[in-house]
Design a protein that fits this description.
Length: 160
Amino acid sequence: MGKLVFSVLMIVIWWMLHALQMDEEVAMQTVHEAKRAVDRAAHAAAQQVDRDKLEMGIISIDPALAEVATLSYLRNNLSLDTQLAPLPGSFLRDQVEVKAFAIINEDESFPYTYRNPLYDYEVTLRRPGVVLIAHVKYPRLFGVIAPVEWDLKGSAELVY
């Protein structure tokens, strides 16, 4: 009888360890996919040239177009709706929050160092660029690990 109870307990422990490993692997896949989406969104925003200023020889990012591009890339790459809430079939379950979105334009002197102590982020830009910080929550599969949330940071410069 003791061996049977021991065997059942070992099977339960093995299942929990297996669930923990699966949860951790899916969490890593989630953070990598979300980080790629944030990087792509920042890059897309940084490429939105202000054509009116460009005609005057000033290289600048159009803030309105940059914001639209950022949200569009986040929605498309993370399967989100217009409120940044996950669509059916998305690997996320909670709404994505844009915590910081900064456009560093020609009115700054370059190289420019962007600092955000709240999110412990610093980046040096050599030309006009965009900084994006988005908050993503991991939808745990089994509830074996504690809730996991990330502030994913991305930046990009205008390429010309």
